[in-house]
Design goal:
- The chain has 117 residues and is an all-beta fold.
- The chain has two domains: 36 residues, no CATH class; 72 residues, Immunoglobulin-like (Sandwich), CATH 2.60.40.1220.
- 0% of the residues lie in helices and 48% in strands.
- The protein contains no helices and twelve strands.
- Strands 9-8-11-12 form a four-stranded antiparallel β-sheet, with no helix packed on it. A three-stranded antiparallel β-sheet has the order 3-4-5, with no helix packed on it.
- Strand 11 and strand 12 form a beta hairpin.
Length: 117
């Protein structure tokens, strides 16, 4: 496994490529020995590219969804959700690149999406 040009072993031992280390397959901070948590692989955005409805699937409750354009201007914001089927209607947006920021009960995740008709 390689992170930023540094190799590490994620088996039963540990290795330290920078400010964190892999220990028994888990990413652990060198300073606090607390396992770091990443939502990047757990929150799914589909389809991408999208034309009308972007679906978001998360194992954690979603508290807020924001849509930004490439200049950082907030275009949409949602707070209330009926169930775990999160969706964002972006049919009113022009074709282009946008950033979706999702706040869950476990943290934030931001993804780039492409809107095309």
């Amino acid at each position: 496994m390689s992170y930023g040009g540094n190799s590490c072993y994620s088996g039963s031992g540990f290795s330290s490529p920078g400010n964190w280390m892999m220990f028994r397959g888990k990413k652990v901070s060198n300073y606090t020995d607390i396992e770091e948590f990443s939502l990047n692989d757990e929150v799914l955005f589909f389809p991408n590219p999208v034309s009308e409805i972007l679906y978001i699937k998360s194992p954690y409750s979603i508290n807020e969804i924001e849509v930004f354009d490439i200049t950082g201007k907030k275009l949409k914001q949602s707070y209330y959700f009926e169930d775990n089927n999160y969706r964002v209607n972006i049919s009113d947006l022009a074709d282009g690149m946008y950033f979706i920021n999702v706040k869950t009960s476990r943290g934030f995740v931001t993804r780039k999406i492409i809107k095309q008709w």
